[in-house]
Amino acid sequence: MRLGPKALILALAAAGVLATAGTLLVMRPAPRTLTSGPAIVGKTIRTGTATIGGPFTLISTNGESVSDQSYRGKWLLIFFVYTFCPDLCPTSLNDMSVALEKLGRAASDIQPLFITVDPQRDTREVMAEYLKSFDPRIVGLTGTQAQIDSVVKEYRVYAERQKAEGDDNYLVSHSGYIYLMDPRGTFVNVIQGSTSGEEIAAWVRKEMAQWS
């Protein structure tokens, strides 16, 4: 029996297993071939429940220092990507933009976040320019390498810089899920980043309706 993405991630997190993207990205029958590599690594706590998410402090594209507490009271759609990504990232951000439009008034309860996995190149100015191509409600967050490493660890994201032909000519292999966090900052579920905007919107509505 094929597990859903949330059940699979929690099972892998509880077991402390690292798997390849081809194993984890199972949301759709025929997922797009991605440059994104291995996916989410997890851990367990004493109750046996996998912990995904946690505190962070980053810099937004408008220059403000923000933390996870800055968004309390809002649902968060978080996508870990980077501006030099050749395939998954721009397509998924466009799908996220479509989803926000499809959600209508419900989108006012949601804050979509684009957290870079490539802070060396993704300055706030670079991210601000890049995000002009997508829904203006998507907020870009960057920071120091240490800050990004910390939030990547908290969310069990896989991100690894690949060998470069030059100083700035490299790819970052990374996992490709969109994370949904509830207004209290608690992990709810994930969906594959290559899911269509219409499907993302329907998924978000369903998850929000089940929340209490």
Top keywords for this entry?
212 residues; alpha+beta; Glutaredoxin; seven-stranded mixed sheet; two-stranded antiparallel ribbon; 9 strands
Largest sheet: 7 strands, mixed
The count of domains is 1
Oligomeric category: single chain
How large is the count of helical segments? 6
Number of DSSP strands?
9
Classified by CATH, the class is: Alpha Beta
Give the SSE order as H and E letters: HHEEEHEHEHEEEEH
Secondary-structure class? alpha+beta
Written account of the structure:
The chain has one domain (about 55-210): Glutaredoxin (3-Layer(aba) Sandwich), CATH 3.40.30. It has helices at about 5-15, 20-25, 90-105, 125-130, 145-155, 195-210, and strands spanning about 55-60, 65, 75-80, 110-115, 140, 160, 170-175, 175-180, 185-190. By secondary structure, the chain is an alpha+beta fold.
